[in-house]
Design brief:
- The complex is a heterodimer of chains A (245) and B (332).
- With 245 residues, chain A is an alpha/beta fold.
- Helix content of chain A is 36%, strand content 24%.
- Chain A is built from nine helices and ten strands.
- In chain A, the strands form two sheets. In chain A, strands 6-7-8-3-9-10 form a six-stranded mixed beta sheet, with helices on both faces. Chain A has a four-stranded antiparallel beta sheet with strand order 2-1-4-5.
- Chain B is mainly α.
- Chain B is built from eleven helices and no strands.
- In chain B, helix 2 crosses helix 5 and helix 4 packs antiparallel against helix 5.
- The chains are: A alpha/beta (245), B mainly alpha (332).
Chain lengths: 245, 332
């Protein structure tokens, strides 16, 4: 795959008469770890909901691995892995059954061993037979991420996926995601508030303010920031036009 | 803020007032229907009111006992909820701390007295229009029952305090699936079918089932044999399970719609995965209902017809709910 993994063109979305996203355009190339930053309520989750087809945008186009989400949703979703919020997971299914449903929906014959290796590393294997409603927040978060990785998708979309994870598990997951997108030549779209991810892992980043992409950092710009001992907080404050504290 | 819980409840009601007109029309419609029913059955109504008037004191005693236990239980539930609520740390004056919980705890009992008042007025209106002499009988019954409920509110402080209510995870009441060897995952949508059935078990907790069977036992006429009572309870349990399963399918399929939206699963496959196990349970419940009716000396033909109708209506409604919940979405 040489073309872009994710293309968003002039996306518009909202709730009823309220417009939340206005004229969003962005592209994720193979190997991109893209971080979406922004204050609470700026539209990050709405943008991700549009990308994973949990919400239908009122305008614009989304293409995943070359397939338009509106006209070819099956092929587009085959290349998509989404880590949903832990409270969306079905409480009365076991973790194993959640994995089975995701793999069944993607038409897989089996789940790759690398996913079980990751589950082992995250110390999740012991919870495979547990009902989801008995799992802690962090364990549910691990399950949500594992579900996103079922079928080795080209585009991984995660919304605040490191919330509730212990530091060791978060580190394991960040390294795994880095390796996975490089090996697969896939892309990761992550909405988060943690600047350490921008600092250490992201290839590109953007700030969303009031439903518009206010500023974006390219790979080179982020590398330059890192090389200069990067004060990412100051860079973001500058980008959104707020005085540095 | 003197009474934070009541103030919050009032604000929530204000936020929902868009449906006020619909609710008002629905209440007026229900009341009109009730008066029409009372009018059509005015002779039976008069007989029933006479019986209630004659047994006013035992009925009042029953109302008092029910009111005492239900109010005590609500007190326990509301105290637990308050301790865990977002308003738990809000400062409340001593005066408000006394009257606010009291209002919250006795609100359903007061509402019950109000509903009884409306019913008695409707009965009195029907009797007056029919030119019957006993137009004050409903008001006397209302006084008995209302007095019983009010006495029950006071009595609720005398009954033993129920244990604090702690809601366990729903899966505690669900049969646990057989543990398979670690590592092996068989990709399939079949697990979706187990979801509503487990939800049904999670809702039908033993405590709720035992409480639900008490009014059924009370409704049995004196002299009912134990075997007849068992059959009636089994019929109610069967019907209850069907209703719970129907609600569980609605709830689970709505939740699944959001969870499965990013997946490339076809609508037909998802609907089938939900529908087949639920339909199997509904058909089994229909067959069980028919068997119970046979035990109850209903003819073979009637029992089979009722069982088949229950199964058919159950499967069709569940199918309809699934098709509706997994309908294609339109661009806003």
């Amino acid at each position: 795959m040489t073309g872009p993994i994710l293309e968003i063109r002039e996306l518009r979305a909202g709730y009823g008469p309220r417009t939340v996203l206005e004229n969003i355009s962005m592209t994720l190339a193979p190997g991109d770890w893209f971080v979406l930053l922004g204050p609470n309520g700026c539209g990050k989750s709405t943008l991700l909901d549009c990308v994973v087809s949990r919400m239908i945008p009122s305008g614009g186009e989304i293409r995943i691995a070359g397939h338009a989400l509106s006209t070819d949703p099956y092929e587009a979703k085959l290349q998509l892995g989404y880590g949903c919020a832990p409270d969306v997971l079905p409480g009365l299914l076991t973790s194993r059954q959640c994995l089975e449903v995701h793999a069944g929906a993607k038409g897989l014959a089996a789940i790759g061993d690398d996913l079980f290796a990751l589950a082992d590393e995250l110390k999740f294997t012991a919870y495979l037979e547990s009902f989801v409603d008995t799992l802690s927040l962090g364990t549910r978060q691990k399950l949500a991420v594992l579900l996103a990785l079922v079928g080795d998708p080209q585009l991984i979309v995660l919304d605040e996926a490191f919330n509730g994870l212990d530091p060791a598990s978060a580190l394991v997951l960040k390294r795994h995601l880095r390796t996975r997108i490089e090996r697969r030549r896939g892309a990761l779209l992550l909405a988060t508030h943690s600047l350490d991810i921008v600092e250490h892992y992201a290839d590109r980043a953007a700030v969303l303010i009031d439903g518009r992409l206010k500023h974006a950092w390219s790979k080179d710009e982020l590398q330059e920031l890192r090389a200069n001992g990067g004060d990412f907080e100051a860079a973001i404050a500058l980008a959104i036009g707020e005085p540095e504290s | 803020m003197t009474a934070p819980r009541l103030a919050a409840a009032k604000l929530i009601r204000l936020n929902r007032r868009t449906h006020l007109m619909v609710k008002t029309v629905a209440v007026v419609f229900c009341l009109g229907t009730l008066i029409a029913l009372f009018w059509m059955q005015r002779d039976s109504l008069e007989q029933a009111l006479k019986w209630l008037r004659l047994h006013g004191l035992p009925c009042a005693a029953l109302a008092a006992i029910a009111s005492a236990f239900l109010t005590a239980r609500r007190r326990s539930l509301k105290r637990t909820e308050y301790a865990l609520s977002w308003l738990a740390a809000v400062p409340v004056t001593d005066r408000a701390a006394r009257w606010e919980p009291l209002v919250i705890e006795i609100l359903p009992a007061i509402a019950a007295i109000g509903v009884l008042g409306v019913l008695s007025m409707a009965c009195a209106l029907v009797l007056a229009l029919a030119g019957r002499a006993e137009i004050f009988t409903p008001l006397a019954i209302e006084a008995y029952l209302g007095g019983g409920i009010a006495a029950g509110i006071i009595g609720s402080y005398l009954v033993p305090q129920p244990k604090p209510v702690i809601l366990p995870p729903g899966s505690r009441y669900v049969p646990h699936p057989r543990v398979r060897r670690a590592g092996g995952v068989r990709p399939s949508l079949r697990a979706l079918g187990a979801w509503p059935i487990r939800q049904m078990f999670a809702w039908a907790q033993p405590k709720i089932v035992s409480r639900a069977s008490i009014p059924i036992l009370i409704m049995m006429p004196m002299g009912t044999t134990a075997d007849a009572a068992m059959v009636v309870i089994a019929l109610f349990a069967n019907l209850g399970a069907l209703l719970l399963l129907w609600s569980a399918v609605i709830s689970a399929s709505r939740a699944a719609r959001s969870w499965l939206a990013p997946l490339p699963a076809g609508r037909g496959a998802v609907i089938r995965a939900f529908l087949l196990p639920a339909s199997a349970v509904i058909v089994a419940a229909g067959a069980m209902g028919a068997l119970l009716l046979l035990v109850f000396n209903v003819s073979y033909g009637t029992a089979a017809q009722l069982g088949a109708c229950t199964a058919l209506i159950g499967c069709l409604t569940v199918g309809g709910v699934l098709v509706w919940n997994f309908r294609p979405r339109r661009t806003p």
